[in-house]
Amino acid sequence: MFNTSLYYLAKSKFMKMAILVSILFSAVVSNCYAQSAQDYYSKGQLDFKQGDFDEAIYDFTKSIDRYPNNANAYSDRGAAYAKLGDFSRAIFNYNQALEIDPDNANIYFLLGTAYYKQGNLTQAIPNFNKSIEINPHNAQCYGYLGIIYAKQGSDPQAISDLTKSIELHGNKAIVFATRGAIYAKQGHLTQAIWDLIQSIKINPHNADTYFLLGRTYSKLESFDQAILNLTMSIKINPHNADAYFFLGSAYFKKNDLINSVSALSKSIEINPHHADVYRARAAVYVKQNDLTKAINDYTKAIEIDPLDANVYFLLGTAYFKQGLLDRSVIELTKSIKIDPHHADVYKARAAIYAKKNKLLKAISDYNKAIEIDPQNAGVYSLCAALYARLGNFDQAIKYYGKYLKSNPNDADGYSLRAAVNTRQGYLSEAIADYSKSIKIEPHHADVYVARGALYVKQGDLSKAIKDYNKAIGINPHNADTYIARAGVFASKEEYTNAWNDVQKADLLGATIDPKFINEVKSGAKREGKEALYSVVLGGICGVIIGWMFAWILNRKHVQFKRERKEKGGKFIRSKTADLFSLLYINRHLGLLAGIATLFIILLTLSLMTKIRMIDTIQFLLVFCGILYIVCLIKVHSGWYNKVTFELDVDKEKKEFNAHISDHKKEIKFTADDIKEVWIHPSEEEFRFYLKNGTWVTWVFSDTDGTDLEENLKDYLRSLGVPIIFKFFH
Length: 729
Prior knowledge:
Blueprint: H1 5-9, H2 13-49, H3 53-66, H4 71-83, H5 87-100, H6 105-118, H7 121-134, H8 139-152, H9 155-167, H10 173-186, H11 189-202, H12 207-219, H13 223-236, H14 241-253, H15 257-270, H16 275-287, H17 291-304, H18 309-322, H19 325-338, H20 343-355, H21 359-372, H22 377-390, H23 393-406, H24 411-424, H25 427-440, H26 445-458, H27 461-474, H28 479-491, H29 495-507, H30 514-559, E1 564-567, E2 570-573, H31 575-585, H32 588-609, H33 614-636, E3 643-644, E4 646-650, E5 655-660, E6 665-670, E7 674-680, E8 685-690, E9 695-699, H34 707-718, E10 723-725
Parallel strand pairs: 3-9, 7-10
Antiparallel strand pairs: 1-2, 4-5, 5-6, 7-8, 8-9
Helix pairs in contact: 2-3, 2-4, 3-4, 4-5, 5-6, 6-7, 7-8, 8-9, 8-10, 9-10, 10-11, 11-12, 12-13, 12-14, 13-14, 14-15, 14-16, 15-16, 16-17, 17-18, 18-19, 19-20, 20-21, 21-22, 22-23, 23-24, 24-25, 25-26, 26-27, 27-28, 28-29, 29-30, 30-31, 30-32, 32-33
């Protein structure tokens, strides 16, 4: 613009006129150029929207040439360059725009985006932060910052910025996907799945999101969902070898081996240089027991990555399963050379050496495995077994001790150490170990058998039989246990029990020494005859003694004269006589005494002849017990209470009073209460049946004479009481 003060300084009229014309011309030209810059800018925006970025750049450049102070023209030209992938020129234009308008948040955002797409994340971060400083509500800035921090591994800051972007309604699929990926990496799988599903809802055509979601479901072992999402990823992008790889792995976890092989083969077809896929397919072939194909795939994986010690280990394991032990050792040795700190490889090679009976080499490898991983208690047990095979029992016991220190609740460990203690002759220690094993696992029949055998060696046959009984209770189909118990019974000369066990073992198909069978069979026959003789003899003796005892009681009763005298119309019986009447009336007590005597005789014979009389004794005990219970029932039910030992008759009042002295009890009744009276002529008993359903019996002996009996009969007839002569018990 021209300075109008020149017009006032002009001295001539002509000069003034020239200056005025010049000013007017300059204003007109300037207005024309400004009008042209705006037109070019508007046209450039239209070209940009239509995707004609080259034409847009041309128009924005024309606009800038005519009006270089338009920050938006620089910014839009930078955006057009960015669309064409020329991020250097885009960055230049954004910086030019910021020189004109340094407080424009959007230009900082665009500049940060250009740096991000250029891969210059360090320069992108301050520009996004500057944009947020000017406009703290820019969700896209937070989104980009979150993505950048995620790429840099700053997960907490990334989640913070991504969450802020989502809170500001920055509903970008990539924001949810990125946060979901971070959550998945951190193990927050449920949160990861939620974010990934939100991302898919916004953009259902992103193969990578389905791929990541499928992998996350695999980590959760939701293999059906994993397969579904990985299949969707492949449908969108059928050339993703990794998607086929993880799909095959998911099928493998579901034990769908056919589909697993198919997916993994497709992955190899797309990318034949992925060693992990060959290794995965080899694992499927191993499970299918197709070891030849598995070995081929492991070999291919080694060709791609010859420094992967784990593949050599797996290859060696495959050769071992194929029975090629020497080849297996070669591959395992290669694995150890690459990675000498892999305890499992030493264990695998030790197992092969042990199988080849190279026990010292096996022990050396096991010790190396222990050196690498001293917490692997199982190796101590394996090494202990090898020391036992070498006959170095003390070392075996030592290593079992180390194993049990880490696994104090392993019943099998105690059993194994007990076996070694047994071979070393440490019987007490072996029994203690078997006892610990039983305490932990009380249903292991073999342990009872083993401990029983040790009790036999110690001469404690009773404990041995208890253990064999327990073993048979747990497993009644083990013939060897019956044979072992038969041997113990034979040692105790209990041949009947031994013969029973021999017969059971024979039924189970056991092979038994004929000499042992003959010995037990003859012993059982001899024992049976002796038992029969003892029972017969004891029975005869018992019956004789019982009846003799009853006869003695009866004689006592007969010899004792009871006194009877009539005073005031009463019949009185002496109490002393009643005691013998009680014994006489309950004369089966003599039989009980006879049975007791029989029991004593049988027990004596058993001790003298060493005959096993336990069954007979048990029978007698049960029989005596039942007889005793019957007697008690009879007593308490009133059977004895109905036996009258003293009978008073008041003729004036027509009353009868029955005294039961041992029970201190009286039964009073009148003639009107009597229903009928039974008289047993041979037993000389009067039984009074009362109308209330009860009855009492009065017994007298020959020494009483017949006067008392006739007087009572006459008196009852005079009262009109029905008298029936009848035999009764």
